[in-house]
């Protein structure tokens, strides 16, 4: 946990069908991010987690599965698989919505920890989610799902208000994640009370980054 304190976590993910959707590619991007100063790496998919097993920074692992609203490491079985693949921190849906396997978040965390020495990051969408996730035993509280559940509006940038609310109410560290697209936003998230800041798209998704520049160039006055 101390290695992430005040640091940057870089999320290295590519969507299905994209040219970079390959575990080796994601591992290479992760290594480049570590070389640039990343304190931690977030990887999605068991093969990607295995490919990043030799990274010398903490790895936050998850899988996206299923068709329900809860799809970030949605079941105990998925959480165990992420731990076995080599993640140091298992990220899972930390909302109060029903989980596909019928287990509570507290049961999921307890059963996972009974067999695996890992930390748990709860991807939350609201202050109430974070409070409940802390009570359930989560080690880290992420703002990952802010704006993706009905409880919070989708902000243009990071949900700084939610970061501050969780930091003031909860004892567990807050990881600011979601729509952090500039160094200024990352700084603002940290100042709002984030223990660590997680950035993905703005660092590791070239298709989106290219589109930002392409639109800017096309829209510029000649």
Automatic annotation (TrEMBL):
GO terms for molecular function: N-acylglucosamine-6-phosphate 2-epimerase activity. Keywords: Carbohydrate metabolism, Isomerase. Its EC number is 5.1.3.9. Signal peptide: none annotated. The keyword Isomerase applies. It comes from the Bacteria. GO terms for cellular component: cytosol. Pathway: Amino-sugar metabolism; N-acetylneuraminate degradation; D-fructose 6-phosphate from N-acetylneuraminate: step 3/5. Converts N-acetylmannosamine-6-phosphate (ManNAc-6-P) to N-acetylglucosamine-6-phosphate (GlcNAc-6-P). Belongs to the NanE family. This is Putative N-acetylmannosamine-6-phosphate 2-epimerase. It comes from Microbacterium kyungheense.
């Amino acid at each position: 946990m101390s290695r992430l304190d005040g640091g940057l976590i870089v999320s290295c993910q590519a969507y299905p069908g994209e040219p970079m959707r390959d575990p080796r590619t994601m591992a290479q991007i992760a290594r480049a991010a570590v070389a640039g100063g990343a304190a931690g790496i977030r990887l999605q998919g068991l093969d990607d987690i295995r490919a990043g097993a030799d990274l010398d920074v903490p790895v936050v692992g998850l899988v996206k599965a299923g068709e329900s609203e809860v799809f970030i490491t949605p079941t105990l079985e998925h959480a165990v698989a992420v731990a076995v693949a080599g993640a140091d921190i298992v990220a899972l849906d930390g909302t109060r919505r029903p989980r596909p396997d019928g287990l509570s978040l507290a049961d999921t965390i307890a059963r996972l920890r009974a067999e695996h020495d890992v930390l748990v990051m709860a991807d939350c969408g609201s202050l109430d989610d974070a409070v409940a996730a802390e009570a359930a035993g989560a080690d880290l509280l992420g703002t990952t799902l802010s704006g993706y559940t009905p409880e919070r509006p989708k902000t243009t940038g990071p949900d700084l208000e939610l970061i501050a609310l969780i930091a003031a109410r909860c004892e567990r560290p807050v990881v600011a994640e979601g729509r952090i697209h500039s160094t200024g936003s990352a700084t603002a998230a940290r100042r709002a009370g984030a223990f660590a800041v997680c950035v993905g798209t703005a660092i590791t998704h070239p298709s989106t980054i290219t589109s930002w520049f392409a639109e800017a160039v096309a829209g510029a006055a000649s």
